[in-house]
Amino acid sequence: MASDRLHLIKETPQRLLAIFAHPDDADVGVGGTLALFSSKGAEIRLLVVCNGDKGSLNDGVDSQELVSLRRIEVEQASGILGIAHHRFVGVEDGEVENSSELRRTIVAEVRSFKPDVVITHDPSAMFFGTTYFNHRDHRELGMAVLDSVFPAAGSPLYFSDAGLPHQVSYVMLSGTLEANVAIDISSTLEAKREAVRRHQSQVSVDEARILENLVVGAKQVGKRASVTYAEAFRVMANPKALHS
Ligand SMILES: [Zn+2]
Fold first, then answer.
1. How far is the centre of ligand 1, averaged over its atoms, from the C-alpha of 215 (Å)?
2. Helix, strand, coil shares of the chain as percentages rounded to 5?
3. Which residues surround ligand 1, an ion (CB under 5 A)?
4. CA–centroid distance, residue 116 to ligand 1 (Å)
5. 7, β-bridge pairs
6. Which of 12, 19, 131, 211 has the fewest CB atoms in 10 Å of its CB?
């Protein structure tokens, strides 16, 4: 684990691309940060890679109905966080692969939107204490996003039919065991809770506890950055951007 203290970063990206595996991942993981950045004028796009078809522990759920429901939930949550545009890639839950096809999709999105910052899962995070190990889709996608940012998106010889090269400045990795920065979400924790509440297909089983856990987690991170509530990230500069 990285050192306990977290450096607070206050700069706001101009354009931010959030790429997450499941329909509720962005809101649960980084909803406070997205709400803060959008309130400060950042333009935010969200790419949801999976369609959420297996996101239920109940018997007899129609997966196509679940997919439709989860699209509505993302739409509502995105409205609360100020996400200007969101899109589903449509991969089935559990089937994310760091494939050439997925990297092409991500590279095309990066080149058309031209974000200065990309937020995604930390693919290196595996074991969180003794109670959670990371979802395969998160690990595969996080790696695919890193591979797409560097070297692919910035190099004209990768996916040359998928737009003109674009260099992302840095990536912010969420769900990390190696956090090095924090974002103060004290002013947007409530928006995050409201966004997460919109994912009723996921939270209705135990809404009060799930929402309380968000607060407890944000408070713990906040303590490490001397603010009330925060979200933690591992920030990595684009190696190419550093050398150009
Ligand atoms: Zn997920």
1. 19
2. 45, 20, 35
3. 21-22, 25
4. 24
5. 181
6. 131
The third-level CATH classification (topology) of the domain covering 7-243 is Rossmann fold (3.40.50)
Q: What is the whole-number distance in angstroms between the Cα of residue 39 and the centre of ligand 1?
A: 25
- What is the average per-residue pLDDT within 123-150? 97
**Spacing, Cα 16 to ligand 1 middle (Å):** 20
E strand spans, the chain: 7-8, 15-20, 43-50, 85-91, 117-121, 127-128, 132-133, 170-174, 181-184, 230-237
pLDDT at res. 240: 83
Look-up: residue for tokens 């494939």? 99
pLDDT interval class at 96 (50, 70, 90):
very high
The two tokens of residue 173 are: 């990795």
For 33-58, write each residue's pLDDT tens digit.
999 999 999 999 999 999 999 988 88
